Amino acid sequence: MYKITKKRVLNSSTVMLEFDAPLIARRALPGQFVVLRVDEPGERVPFTIADSDERTGAVSVIFQIAGHSTRKLAALSEGESVLDLVGPLGRASELDGFRSAAVIGGGLGIAIAYPQARALYERGARTDVIVGFRTRELTILEEELSAVSSELTVMTDDGSNGNKGFVTTALQRKLEAGAKYDAVIAIGPLPMMRAVCELTRGYGVHTIVSMNSVMIDGTGMCGCCRVTVGGERKFACVDGPDFDGHLVDFGEAAYRSRMFLEEERISSETHVCNLTGGVR
Predict the structure, then answer these.
(1) How far is the C-alpha of 175 from the C-alpha of 197, rounded, in Å?
(2) What span, in angstroms and rounded, lies between the C-alpha atoms of 210 and 115?
């Protein structure tokens, strides 16, 4: 059992939970993830490690309330526990040698972008962070990102924060102005990462993406998280989740991400919410 030591509601649909998990915190590195199970009948769900502290043993995850399992998780309070928390899993991000980088985060991908940006910034790299949200009300981690970036740019689709456009809008402006990056790290929805890669390809900038594919066991045995990179089959849980974005088959990845939409819909519709007295 892993106790929740802190709970923070970031916006109407996004929650951060901090767990007491000293063995995981001792070994966690940027880019790695955990697999969590709320209770015995619960499904195994992967979450990127948003933050960890070896001194206190704390491990944090950030998630969006989207389905049955995340609703159950969001219903828990500080002091309660989840059954399983396995990790750290996946390959840590390879950030050595980058003297200047742009870290791009979209939506919930910002939870993954934060530890990447912090690691680069603490190593002395010029770290430009660009994050995007649909609207100002959905903005998360702005203060935390500001503290670990050389320059932070926050974009909103609707312009409600006074800065309208996509993350690619801001990135293109920087590249056109002559910004030189050893790498661009893009983390977020598949269409966003694909758009970033299409942009950076023309500038010849090495681009890394984080492929958060469907996972079950998190050890490479089930094969559900396979992606095609440079024409070769890879497994996001053991070979990634970071890959060269210019080599990823985004069309295949998008198709696989939609494979279980019907099952997800059925699960959500048949779920009985205990918080509302049994109302579906």
Answers:
(1) 13
(2) 13
Half-sphere exposure of 119 (CA within 13 A, CB side): 22
Amino acid occupying residue 232: E
Give the type of residue at 231: G
Task: Tell me the C-alpha distance between 118 and 124, whole Å.
Answer: 10
Tokens of 96: 């050595």
Q: What is the β-pairing status of strands 226-229 and 81-82?
A: unpaired
What amino acid occupies position 190? Answer: L
Sole residue written with tokens 């998280």 = 225
> Which residue type sits at 94?
E
pLDDT in tens, 137-163: 988 999 999 999 999 999 999 989 888
Is residue 25 within 8 A of residue 57, CB to CB? The reply is yes
Domains of the chain, earliest start first? 2-89 (2.40.30.10), 100-210 (3.40.50.80)
Torsion of CA 231, 237, 243, 246, to 10 degrees: 50
Segment 82-139, tens digit of pLDDT: 999 998 998 888 898 999 999 999 878 888 889 999 999 999 999 999 999 999 998 8
Give the up-direction half-sphere exposure of residue 34: CA atoms within 13 A in the CB hemisphere.
29
DSSP state of 137: G
Beta-bridged to residue 84, according to DSSP, are: 37
Cα distances (Å, whole numbers) of residue 204 to 74, 131, 175, 198: 42, 22, 11, 10
Residue type, 176: E
Give the pair of three-digit tokens for residue 83. Answer: 């059954």
Task: Tell me 248's DSSP state.
Answer: B
